[in-house]
Design goal:
Blueprint (H helix, E strand, L loop, with lengths): L2 H23 L2 H7 L4 H22 L6 H20 L7 H14 L3 H16 L3 H22 L7 H16 L7 H11 L8 H30 L4 H26 L6 H20 L3 H31 L4 H29 L1 H32 L8
Helix pairs in contact: 1-7, 1-8, 3-5, 3-14, 4-5, 4-6, 4-8, 6-14, 7-11, 10-13, 10-14, 10-15, 11-13, 12-13, 12-15, 14-15
Length: 394
């Protein structure tokens, strides 16, 4: 496989697409507030997003049976994201806002998983560190948020949607330049993963870890800007605090390849990821200064996410094989979004009755539950390496 061509096409693709997503998803809460939505309406809209993400994952997952389908599903999602994001300009009623938000989130549910499921096996066969490509996705978020810091005082949040649509369309075009190596990947799958089931017991535990842990974490990321805004932080300042977490994530992704080859397994970095991200929720229990809260939360979660992005897909391949990678990644994303849906719908009730400190404590508790399943995954994974682990369906 052409290593140089892979890097020259995959890196810009990650950069542009993630920039588009940053200009969209980073400002959902603030956009709804700008449109005049009250707390109840905002809660429903925020709950709609992960619910649509959940549905999108489970509708699209069965179609992603091989890398060729995965890349075409990515392209379909990218071009629809571009068009639907522009649809916000025509929303004149709350009902229309609900409908467009649902569709935007539905098709934003799985493109990351599709492109990751296509690229990761390529990096293994080309002897390329996946983190060296994934870092450009982080860079895309960073560039978008830094730009947001400088322009949000002079433009509306809604103007970011037009920028997002253009970037999604650009990423759609770049995807056609990625090397076509489906046949090579398929041969590798037939040789190494044909008989490997998807739902091994360790994968089910990992599935539950992602469901509870990242479901809770993703819900918190929707509420954190509301908390910071209520404490007096401006939209531009919020953009800068989130950018600090992206910088941290990018630095970690740069450093990870220096020691990644020495790792015999991926349990330690995933455990470190879980501890750091759980701490990012824990600081919300004790800190009320908006700047200390914002920076500490994003710095901790940024470091944790770097380890997750670098090692999670490689660990999933070990659990269920390359053939099942795209489908597994979409399923993992989907159930986490279902939990986020339920938490977002209940968020107004939780932080109204328990205070924001109580809300962050609740999120931290959910993440600790997820960590329990991660520990079970690691215990069962050791058994899987020493002998075959029967599928739950066998």
């Amino acid at each position: 496989m052409d290593k140089k061509r892979l890097l020259l096409t995959a890196c810009p693709l990650y950069l542009i697409f993630f920039m588009g997503d940053a200009f969209l998803s980073s400002y959902f809460s603030l956009y709804f507030i700008e449109r005049g939505m009250d707390a109840s309406q905002t809660s429903i809209l925020l709950g709609m997003i992960p619910f649509a993400l959940f549905l999108g994952c489970f509708v699209l997952s069965p179609i992603a049976k091989n890398p060729k389908r995965a890349i075409w599903l990515y392209r379909i999602c990218a071009v629809l994201e571009a068009g639907l994001t522009l649809g916000y300009a025509f929303c004149t009623t709350y009902t229309a806002l609900l409908a467009v938000t649902f569709l935007v989130a539905f098709f934003n549910s799985a493109p990351f998983s599709f492109i990751e499921g296509y690229i990761v096996p390529m990096t293994k066969k080309s002897n390329v560190s996946y983190s060296s490509i994934r870092i450009f996705g982080t860079l895309g978020y960073l560039v978008a948020l830094v730009i947001g810091f400088f322009i949000l005082d002079s433009i509306k949040i809604s103007d970011c949607l037009f920028i997002s649509a253009g970037l999604f369309a650009f990423a759609f075009g770049i995807s056609f330049l990625i090397p076509k190596s489906e046949e090579e990947i398929q041969k590798g799958e037939d040789m190494h993963a044909k008989s490997q089931p998807l739902f091994t017991r360790p994968f089910i535990f990992y599935f539950l870890f992602v469901t509870f842990f990242f479901g809770a974490f993703n819900a918190m990321t929707y509420i954190l800007p509301i908390r910071l805004s209520g404490l007096g932080m401006s939209d531009a300042e919020y953009s800068l605090t989130r950018a600090s977490g992206i910088v941290t994530e990018m630095i970690c992704l740069l450093l990870i390849p220096l020691f990644a080859k020495r790792l015999r397994n991926y349990q330690l970095p995933l455990a470190l990821c879980a501890a750091l991200i759980a701490s990012s929720a824990g600081v919300g229990i004790f800190i009320q200064n908006p700047y200390v809260l914002g920076y500490s939360s994003w710095l901790l979660s940024g470091t944790g996410k770097a380890f997750y992005f670098a090692f999670s897909s490689l660990f999933v391949i070990k659990l269920c094989g390359e053939k099942n990678l795209s489908k597994a990644l979409v399923l993992l994303s989907g159930t986490g979004n279902l939990v986020s849906t339920l938490l977002n719908l209940a968020s107004d009730t939780i932080y109204t009755n328990l205070t924001f400190e109580g809300y962050f404590a609740f999120i931290a508790g959910m993440e600790i539950l997820g960590i329990v399943f991660l520990v079970l995954t690691q215990i069962d994974f050791k058994n899987m390496k020493s002998g075959p682990v029967r599928s739950e369906n066998q």
